[in-house]
Specification:
single chain; alpha/beta; TIM Barrel; 2 domains; 8-stranded parallel β-sheet
Length: 341
């Protein structure tokens, strides 16, 4: 594993390591990102943010900043010294305006989503639908780069994409080339097509191929569920960084485990009690951000991830999905995990 854990340079930004948390809608809130950083994640990114909503929701009292409804998604986590805000949209002019509105948050990076396969995103021409129109993708990158130079201290602009729309239109090479020519400082590649969604296997050969073709760093994504997966991707593809998505859900410890694997060749899985204690801490901190009632509802899906693979996990999930207060979560979890206060 020697040399696989290493710094990454993204434009003017140097990161100390190459273990990234992917932006995952509904999961990578600022509390979860902070928990991942505490476990060794080197870089994190917000959930995807609609450029259209960001521009529409400007505060009526301050036309230079986003309105309150968007703020919880945009806010930096308490332990985030470096983070990216990810925007999605299909209109270069709107993306330019939206990027300009990020100034109050001082993100170190602005990421452009060209990979989301969800229909409500792609039907607007955004997300992975941008890969069907590489010219528009290029104009969007140019617009966001210009906004960054004008108001974000020239924060690097990055792009997250898929291999293509479907098996008949694998065009990550063209899209990445256009994005880099337009000013992108890093390309993240989830090596599946939009049509695949999250099914089947990701084709890591696409990541290796892209590494050989563009001058900026490539972050690899897809089928990273263990420290060994991360080491294998780094070795087989030569990518600069690995980006955990589903593999980190309910398991922030994957970052400390992967760092240990890359540096020492060994790692220890977390105890079940550690995962559940982390989940409860996530709930308490999330409630402080968005209110107890909303956090308790939202955390039901999070605890599906925190309990996945645990002995008795199904029965525990059946109880947790009915919990409506922090006290109810505490009572249920105390029966399983020590350290729940």
């Amino acid at each position: 594993m020697s040399g696989l854990y290493r710094p990454v340079v993204i434009g003017s930004l140097t990161l100390p390591g190459n273990l990234f948390l992917a932006p995952v809608a509904g999961y990578s809130d600022r509390v979860f990102r902070s928990l991942c950083i505490a476990q060794g994640a080197d870089f994190t990114c917000t959930e995807l943010v609609s450029s259209e909503a960001l521009v529409r929701n400007r505060s009526p009292h301050d036309r230079s900043s986003p309105g309150d409804r968007t703020n919880p998604i945009l806010r930096r986590g308490d332990t985030e010294t470096r983070y990216a805000i990810q925007l999605f949209g299909a209109d270069p002019a709107v993306m330019y305006q939206a990027a300009g509105l990020l100034a109050p948050y001082h993100p170190e990076v602005v990421d452009i989503n060209c990979g989301c396969p969800v229909p409500k995103v792609t039907k607007t021409g955004a997300g992975s639908a941008l890969m069907r129109n590489p010219a528009t993708l290029g104009r969007i990158v140019e617009a966001v780069v210009r906004a960054s130079k004008e108001g974000l201290g020239e924060a690097p602009v990055t792009v997250k994409m898929r291999s293509g729309w479907d098996a008949a239109s694998i065009n990550y090479r063209e899209c990445a080339r256009i994005a880099v020519e337009a000013g992108a400082a890093l390309v993240s590649l989830h090596a599946r097509t939009k049509a695949q969604g999250y099914a089947g296997q990701s084709d890591w050969s696409h990541i290796a191929d892209l590494v050989s073709r563009i001058a900026v760093p490539v972050a690899g994504s897809g089928d990273l569920f263990s420290p060994e997966d991360a080491g294998r991707m780094l070795q087989e593809t030569g990518c600069a960084a690995v980006m955990f998505a589903r593999g980190s859900m309910g398991n922030p410890c994957i970052f400390s485990a992967t760092r240990s694997w890359l540096l020492t060749g060994s790692w220890m899985p977390p105890e079940a009690s550690e995962r559940l204690t982390t989940g409860f801490r996530h709930l308490v901190l999330r409630a402080a951000d968005i209110g107890e009632r909303t956090a308790c509802r939202e955390m039901r899906k999070q605890f599906c991830a925190y309990t996945k693979g645990l002995m008795g996990g199904a029965a525990l999930r059946n109880r947790l999905v009915h919990a409506e207060t922090i006290a109810a979560y505490r009572d249920i979890l105390r029966e399983t995990a020590a350290g729940i206060e």
